[in-house]
């Protein structure tokens, strides 16, 4: 799967992750030339130091992980610290709790506040949509809202909600997203041919939470 390495982002977000496992993922990113490394906010500063300023891979972290229902003010603080610590891609989890309530208009306001902070530091703004929780109309609505807000990438899942990989759902997510925004797909459980189909369909990033080397 060497030809896929430049599309793969290694994610190390599960709550039982050890420091050694994170270093193993970092070594994979460096040795295999992967696209990026996604760590929890607690570890951003450490891995920014390890990567240095010239490392070609992107260092990402999450905000509002895993369910997105924190107050916007808390997410703003998370964003500020993540940027200060050296993250260059901020993955913000959609507040589905607000979406499913009369407060749904707040989602648009929240995106507007966060994208301003992120783009001011010339970092990437990724919106994470837990697409398995959304019906098709809601998914279309949130894809449009995130795109209109200035998202650089849309991601189809957090990886924290249990569920099997579905190529059909992943390709549907790619089709819903306009060409002006990048797409990240959580590809744990996908076969190499399925990942090749995703890349051929225009998916820019494949997020893998498991080691590539064995």
Automatic annotation (TrEMBL):
It comes from the Bacteria. SMART domains: DeoC. Keywords: Cytoplasm, Schiff base. The keyword Transferase does not apply. InterPro entries: Aldolase_TIM (IPR013785), DeoC (IPR011343), DeoC/FbaB/LacD_aldolase (IPR002915). PANTHER family: DEOXYRIBOSE-PHOSPHATE ALDOLASE. This is Deoxyribose-phosphate aldolase. It comes from Nibrella viscosa. The gene is deoC_2.
């Amino acid at each position: 799967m060497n030809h896929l390495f430049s599309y793969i982002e290694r994610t190390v977000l599960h709550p039982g992750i050890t420091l050694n496992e994170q270093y193993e993922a970092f070594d994979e990113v460096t040795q295999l030339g992967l696209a990026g490394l996604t760590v929890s906010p607690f570890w951003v500063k450490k891995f920014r130091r390890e990567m240095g300023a010239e490392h070609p891979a992107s260092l990402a972290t999450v905000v509002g992980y895993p369910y997105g229902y924190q107050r916007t003010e808390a997410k703003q603080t998370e964003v500020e610290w993540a940027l200060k610590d050296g993250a260059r891609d901020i993955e913000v989890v959609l507040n589905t709790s607000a979406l499913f309530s009369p407060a749904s208009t707040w989602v648009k306001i929240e995106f507007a506040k966060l994208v301003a902070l992120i783009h001011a530091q010339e970092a990437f703004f990724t919106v994470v949509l837990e697409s398995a929780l959304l019906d098709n109309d809601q998914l279309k609505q949130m894809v449009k809202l995130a795109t209109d807000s200035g998202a650089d990438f849309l991601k189809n899942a957090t990886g924290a909600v249990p569920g099997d990989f579905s190529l059909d759902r992943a390709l549907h997510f790619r089709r819903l997203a306009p060409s002006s925004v990048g797409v990240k797909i959580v590809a744990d459980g996908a076969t190499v041919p399925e990942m090749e189909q995703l890349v051929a369909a225009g998916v820019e990033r494949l997020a893998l939470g498991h080691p590539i080397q064995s």
